Amino acid sequence: GNVATDADDDGNTHDDAGASAVVDATDDDADDDKSTQDGKNSIVETVPNDDDANGDEGVDDDADTNKNIEETDGGGDDDNAIDANDDDDDDKNADDADGNGDDEGGDDDAGRNNTSAYAYVFMVGGVNEKQPGYLGFLYNILVASEVLRQHGSKADIVAFFQFVAESDLDELPEKEARLLVSQNIKVKYLPKPTGEFTYYDLQLEKFRILTLTQYRRVLYVDSDILPLNNLDYVFDLSDGPDATLKENMVVATRGEPSNGGFFMLRPGEGEYEELQGIIAQQMHDAKDLPHPKFHNGNGWGHNFKKAGDHWKSIKETGSMWSYWGAHCDQGLLYYWVRYVKRETSLVIGNTVHNWSTDSKGKHFLEKELKQPLNKLPEKYGAFKPKSSMKRPLNVSNNRPYTDYAHFTGDTKPWRIDLPAGNCLKKSYAPESAAHTWFHAFCGLNKKLQMGIDMANWEAERHRIGDAPLGNKPDWAAMSRRVTKTAADKLAKEKSAEADAAPAPVATAAAHNHTHPTVAYAISLIKCPAGSSAGLIDASLVLRHSIHQNSVRNPASGSKYDYRMYAIVHEQAQSCAAVVEQA
């Protein structure tokens, strides 16, 4: 959930990944902004229990609310050195994160536990109980859910979690799961990956939102993004006969036509499988290309120059798949909505381009709307284009850009010091997006009895540590994935050919007799650092050599069949699956 940026605008995102200044969102010209943006397996679902979350929408300091929350840390109502006894009225109701007194989240929605037609989806990958780097993202999901409810959102909130292959767990520890359930967040566990799995691979997992067919619309939100308002308007404005937005929506950044951290799709039966077919085709076409195994002209299946069109961002226009993330989620997303689904809204600064398809199948620009999202009903919250709040990546002073903050790189709240002041007070929140985050988090810490000593936040920050999978979808990871995919396919084809071939007869004496079998065993004592490509290649070469000198190859003259084994030492368990597949 962490998209690197070109912070110094030099066209090179590799040397400043994660760099972003916190800027003052006071520029009222959307066109002059100076900062930048950034096969199907079953999913196990945990649905919130009706008894767990009713009435917990706001960050309520009321003692009666806390009585019904299970105490897990044995610390009672520990206020963690924050002045919880402050008589200031600001501290009596910590559920108004923006300090405007217009919170709508405190009212209990009787239908809250019923599935909405719409959902926000967050995703956390690389989960490993031995490395708590994932906790910061989990905390952010809790905070995001709190802020959305405070501002009146009625949509479901779903969290995808994916454990690393070497994890001993298949579900979150009870204490962490309880926190999510208490916020009425629906938890879904993605299948564990096998073999090498990188940040690049994780970015393609987000498209599993297409399988959530119980929803009419799904808004994917990176797990380091904090909503600052009720974003339900993207759902409401995209549904119905008079819809302003299309059923799919992508948001451009300053230099890219699509932001892979914030987009809306319409799920449907077979959609995810269709998208997986696009990925497979791209990798097949790229297998013979030199590193990095990606064609900047053809991209994911559309050649802009040959088609006579282009992509457009807030500041740039281009006809090559060479913008940041084009080889990964941001390119695949743009291709999917623009050239496969075609019914799409492209939000570009203060403009929305609605694309559609006519009765003859021609793709055309149906409407170009100027600032259609800036004047919305009050229930979606106030539009604040000249807010004094400091937030990272102030790409444009138009909606939806002004309604969320993307904490890239080391701007993440769980990577910084706790800002000075009493984080439970409403007056603490408006200063910056980070202040808003900590205000909500401090309230949750108290309400849910999380047991975090906010006076010693630095210790918690260091305990969490770095993001589990890094923060860059690098080219090398894609190249290795393409190579491995091609090797796997070749191995399967060769195996199928061998299995389909008639059993050879070496001699008359061997006729109608079972061939004696030789067992070949290797000892796997250590996994390679970084890529597993060399291990895969070695395994395939070894198998091919043994196969060629066995009874399965009539030209060999051998009378022996074979079986292959690997003796896997404990320290090499994590790469055993790679050898087994090869």
Low-confidence stretches: 1-40, 49-112, 505-513
Largest sheet: 10 strands, mixed
Radius of gyration from CA coordinates: 27 Å
> Total strand count, please?
18
Strands in their spatial order, largest beta sheet = 2-5-4-3-6-9-8-12-13-14
The percentage helix is 25-40%
Distance between the termini: 31 Å
Strand content: 15-25%
Average pLDDT number: 78
Compute the number of helices.
14
Secondary structure class reads alpha/beta
What overall form do the CA principal axes indicate?
A: globular
User: What is the subunit organization of this protein?
Assistant: single chain
How would you characterize the overall build of this protein?
This protein has 14 helices and 18 strands. 26% of the residues lie in helices and 16% in strands. Helix 3 crosses helix 10 and helix 12 (475-500) packs parallel to helix 13. Helix 13 (533-548) links the parallel strand 17 (517-524) and strand 18 (561-568). It is an alpha/beta fold.
Write the layout of secondary structure elements.
Layout: E1 22-24, E2 44-46, H1 50-53, H2 63-67, E3 118-127, H3 135-150, E4 156-163, H4 174-182, E5 185-189, H5 199-205, E6 217-221, E7 225-227, H6 233-236, E8 248-251, E9 262-265, H7 271-286, H8 304-307, E10 311-312, E11 317-318, H9 329-341, E12 344-348, E13 351-357, E14 363-370, E15 390-392, E16 404-406, H10 433-447, H11 457-464, H12 475-500, E17 517-524, H13 533-548, E18 561-568, H14 576-581
Parallel strand pairs: 3-4, 3-6, 4-5, 8-12, 17-18
Antiparallel strand pairs: 1-15, 2-5, 6-9, 7-16, 8-9, 10-11, 12-13, 13-14
Helix pairs in contact: 3-10, 12-13
